[in-house]
Amino acid sequence: MKRLIKSLFNKFGIDLVRFPNVNCDAYRRSLIVKSLEIDLIIDVGANAGFFAKEMFKLGFEGQIVSYEPLNEPFKIMQGLSQKSTKWKAYNYALGSENTISSINIAGNSFSSSILDMLPQHLKSSPDSIL
Fold this sequence. Notes:
The protein is of the alpha/beta class. The protein has helices at about 1-10, 25-35, 50-55, 70-80, 120-125; strands at about 40-45, 65, 85-90. Among the domains are: about 40-95, no CATH class; about 100-130, no CATH class.
């Protein structure tokens, strides 16, 4: 049945192809990276490595260096990164100064930061509450 439908569309100059099984934003990012011939991505605040995992899934062939200061998401990312020689993961935060700081750990790890949580952030993402 698929072949019949595909051949019907082909007669009108239309080729049906399967869209990548990821969200559209990730696909667009991968196209931008490819068009700019980027071969190194530095992923700061990488959480559990979702961005890097998606980029490799979408065909990125360069190197990714990921930094995540929180231990739990880092452990997940470390397990994923060990499957690729092109992905390095580090359990550090990056900033403009060489210093030791406390981090505000949010209810969802995506919102954790050394910066104070602003009321606007709490309003738009209530699950961020510390």
